[in-house]
Write a structure and sequence with these properties.
Elements: E1 7-12, H1 18-31, E2 36-40, E3 46-48, E4 51-53, H2 56-65, E5 67-70, H3 84-91, E6 94-102, E7 115-121, E8 125-135, E9 138-144, H4 147-164, E10 168-173, H5 181-193, E11 200-205, H6 206-215, E12 223-227, H7 229-243, E13 250-255, E14 259-263, H8 280-292, H9 296-312, H10 326-336
Parallel strand pairs: 1-2, 1-5, 5-14, 7-12, 10-11, 10-12
Antiparallel strand pairs: 3-4, 6-7, 6-13, 8-9, 13-14
Helix pairs in contact: 1-8, 1-10, 4-5, 6-7, 8-9, 9-10
The protein binds nicotinamide-adenine-dinucleotide.
Length: about 350
């Protein structure tokens, strides 16, 4: 917090539609009198000792401000490019990826009343990047599970459940097959649950979770699901599908010190610069950020205005079947703030 009473937040506008959807957030926040000042941050990669790295100024900004809001970053395809998203995750040790999915009134999908929260271990597991060529035709990929990283994300899941008023934490796993790795993750969940007597703890096999969620997601509304990296990557997109896809879902990447909130979708180069982009996912990510910062009243006010605008259905962007431009949709949200 600064002397003027405002919090400084790093803003990575991102590529493609990033600047357009970021502008909507800035306009809505200004209209809602949110006590935030944005610090624009350029994360265009530089090469450091032959490796992709984020400029020092960007790292310093995020370290200083502790929170950042991030638009989509385009990842060049081809060898030698480490994804910037992965670089950010590693640089700030963002160990938990939080993905809530809540049904949006006014946007009909085959499922009603969805309210899932999924937390994915973000640093190891199947994505440790340890792969070997053993002999011709044989490769080996190592799934790394450590007590330290598992405990950290599991503890966060319990704390997050408490903070948002969910009563249960469920570990999703395949400990029947991955006896040692998922077994350790599961055991640690049970062990930690003793420190959180107000939260009920249980577990479910990943395949059962998939079947059960697409059959009826509503029994999952009172739970926070927590799981190793790969399962979370896949299952979180599946949950996004329940409410209408990646264009509507927010996410938070939580670290020991810094946290970065970002939309799940990409930079949408096909609609860049045409004012067709939907800023909802980035706006919802920013609402998670406000909650993380304890600015709950502002979060609730903006969330209500956005949900109202979507339910009214008059100013929807093209991806939701409407005709509104990005700024017209943002303008309708601003009108609903009053
Ligand atoms: P994408 O999400 O950018 O686009 C997929 C489709 O969804 C496109 O038709 C696009 O127009 C549409 N879309 C996405 N977001 C939208 C929005 N807010 N409003 C309206 N329509 C939207 O996925 P892609 O085309 O596979 O990837 C494009 C680039 O984005 C790639 O360089 C990729 O690496 C990058 N990417 C970045 C992130 C991230 O920064 N977190 C995530 C995914 C992809």
């Amino acid at each position: 917090k600064q002397a003027n009473g405002k919090y400084l937040v790093s803003l990575i506008e991102g590529d493609g539609i990033g600047p357009e959807i970021s502008q909507s957030i800035k306009d809505i926040y200004a209209a809602a009198d949110v006590p935030i000042e944005w610090e624009p941050v350029d994360v265009n990669p530089i090469l450091k000792d032959g490796k992709t790295a984020i400029p020092d100024a960007a790292i310093e900004s995020i370290k200083r401000n502790l929170v950042a809001l991030k638009g989509p970053l385009a990842t060049p395809i081809g060898k030698g490019h480490v994804s910037l998203n992965l670089t950010l995750r590693r640089t700030f040790n963002l160990f938990a990826n939080v993905r809530p999915c809540k049904s949006i009134a006014g946007y009909k999908t085959p499922y009603d009343g969805v309210d899932t929260v999924l937390i994915r271990e973000n640093t190891e597991g199947e994505y440790s990047g340890i792969e070997h060529h053993v002999v011709d035709g044989v490769v080996q990929s190592i799934k790394l599970i450590t007590r330290a990283a598992s405990e950290r994300v599991l503890r966060y899941a319990f704390q997050y459940a408490e903070s948002i008023g969910k009563k249960k934490v469920r570990v999703v796993h395949k400990a029947t097959i991955m006896k040692q790795s998922d077994g350790l993750f599961l055991d640690l969940g049970l062990e930690l649950s003793k420190q959180f007597p107000n939260i009920q703890f249980d577990s479910e096999l990943l395949d059962n979770t998939c079947l059960n969620i697409v059959t009826d997601p509503t029994p999952y509304n009172d739970k926070v699901l927590v799981m190793p990296n790969l399962y979370g990557d896949i299952l979180s997109d599946m949950c996004a599908g329940l409410i209408g896809g990646l264009g509507l879902t927010p996410s938070g990447n939580i670290g020991d010190e810094c946290s970065i909130f970002e939309a799940v979708h990409g930079s949408a180069p096909d609609i860049q610069g045409k004012a067709l982009a939907n800023p909802t996912a980035l706006l919802f990510s920013s609402i998670m950020m406000l909650q993380h910062m304890g600015l709950n009243e502002h979060a609730a006010k903006i969330q209500k205005a956005a949900f109202d605008t979507l339910a009214q259905g008059k100013y929807l962007t093209g991806d939701l079947g409407g005709k509104a431009k990005t700024h017209e949709y943002a303008g309708a949200i601003i009108d609903n703030l009053k």
